[in-house]
Amino acid sequence: MTVLLTGGSGLVGSHVIEALRACGHPVRALVRPAAVPTVRALGAEPVTGDVTDRAAWARAAVGISGIVHAAAFVARRTSLDAFRAVNVGGTQRAIESARAAGVPLVHLSSVAVYGRDAAFAEGPQCVTEDYAFRPLPDWDFYARSKREAELAVQLAARTGGVAAVAIRPNVIYGERDRLFAPRVVRFVRHGMVPQVGSGQNHLSCVYAGNVAAAVVTALERAREGFRAYNTTNDSDFTQREFFETFAQAAGRTVRWIPVPTPLVRAGIALYATWQSVTSPGVYPGVGRAAVGFLTGENPYNSERARAELDWRPQVPPREAIARTVRWVTRGRERGDEKPG
Questions:
Q1: Are strands 255-259 and 163-168 parallel, antiparallel or unpaired?
Q2: What is the reported pLDDT for 214?
Q3: Do 28 and 103 meet the contact criterion of CB atoms below 8 Å apart?
Q4: Taking 60 as the threshold, does the pLDDT of residue 279 lie above it?
Q5: Predicted confidence (pLDDT) at residue 18 exceeds the cutoff of 90
Q6: What span, in angstroms and rounded, lies between the C-alpha atoms of 171 and 114?
Q7: What is the pLDDT of residue 311?
Q8: Most exposed of 48, 189, 216, 317 (fewest Cβ within 10 Å)?
Q9: pLDDT: is 52 or 289 the higher one?
Q10: How high is the pLDDT of residue 339?
Q11: How many C-beta atoms surround the C-beta of residue 236 within 10 A?
């Protein structure tokens, strides 16, 4: 039977299509019209509609065996209501559809639900799935909407009628990444890469194809009730090793520019102040979260996914980075990728 997917043209969703098809699962993708060619090329059956529209879900959910909800709003300059409309409203429709069809639901969540700053203060590998959610700042519309969405999934599963799983990744890269990876490639192509702090801290990042593998296994093994899984690191790369691997894949030798952590934090604080004046609605704390990611040890523990989902990197990290760089490079050559 067919798996219904949202967010099929996005970074993780597109890899989920490939992973489901590789396992022999037919895929139906609920997408907006502009994404139809992308999901069709990946092997999914497109159904056009909005993730907040009950009628679209009803059309798409006929004869399905499971739902993977990967669609999310991640824009930076907007309102909390705009985030909630998609991230919470779309998740509510996914819950309703899973309950009506009697099928399992895998919800793509985020480690942002824990609280960005609090997690990095806990120490290496200390944030498990049982870590209590910490208060979220008013400005973090994405984290607030993702937490509300996941709590709705948890409630639905615990009150009966839905077998649900939440997958919680952190920084994701891979083919069809239009945010993080193009910026990394831009840095290494320039030949100079900032090294924040010692460069020996281990990063919390993961290849989209490996997240997709966890999604597929979670869907196949879902049972009544709720279960969450961190899928935050498929390697033990240090900050320096991670960027060196990108440079090698891009055929570049880079020069490292040491940047003291206090200087970065001071610069981020000044930038955030300037942004709050010139661009209302831009998150003032995203820079702080980026500093935590670059300078802190990975605080997230993915052992539950390894133990219960047999989660291992199906694509080794060096190969994953090579694939990512090839995709970014081809886009630049076509002129349709403009990292920065």
A1: unpaired
A2: 98
A3: no
A4: no
A5: yes
A6: 14
A7: 97
A8: 48
A9: 52
A10: 37
A11: 10
On whether the pTM is more than 0.90, the answer is: yes
The least confident of 97-106, 180-189, 305-314 is 180-189
Return all residues near 118 (Cβ < 8 A) that are at least 6 apart: 134
Q: Give dist(CA 57, CA 47) in Å, integer.
A: 9
CB atoms within 10 A of CB 278: 8
Question: Tokens in use for 133?
Answer: 């959610």
User: In angstroms, rounded to a whole number, what is the distance separating the alpha carbons of residues 327 and 323?
Assistant: 6
Q: Which amino acid is at 209?
A: G
Q: What's residue 333's pLDDT? A: 55
Looking at residue 261, its amino acid is: T
Is the Cα dihedral 325, 211, 302, 316 positive or negative? negative
| CATH C-level class of 2-115+123-177+204-233+299-315 | alpha beta
Q: Provide the residue ranges of all domains of the chain, joining segments of one domain with +.
A: 2-115+123-177+204-233+299-315
Does residue 340 carry a pLDDT above 50?
no
What is the SS3 string spanning the chain?
CEEEEECCCCHHHHHHHHHHHHCCCCEEEEECHHHHHHHHHCCCEEEECCCCCHHHHHHHCCCEEEEEECCCCCCCCCCHHHHHHHHHHHHHHHHHHHHHHCCCEEEECCHHHHCHHHHHCCCCCCECCCCCCCCCCCCCHHHHHHHHHHHHHHHHHHCCCCEEEEEECCEEECCCCCCHHHHHHHHHHHCEEEEECCCCCECCEEEHHHHHHHHHHHHHHCCCEEEEEECCCCCCCEHHHHHHHHHHHCCCCCEEEEECHHHHHHHHHHHHHHHHHHCCCCCCCHHHHHHHHHHCCCCECCHHHHHHCCCCCCCCHHHHHHHHHHHHHHHHHHCCCCCC
Pairing of strands 171-173, 205-207: parallel
Mean pLDDT on 248-267: 85
Query: How many Å is the maximal CA-CA distance in the chain?
Result: 57
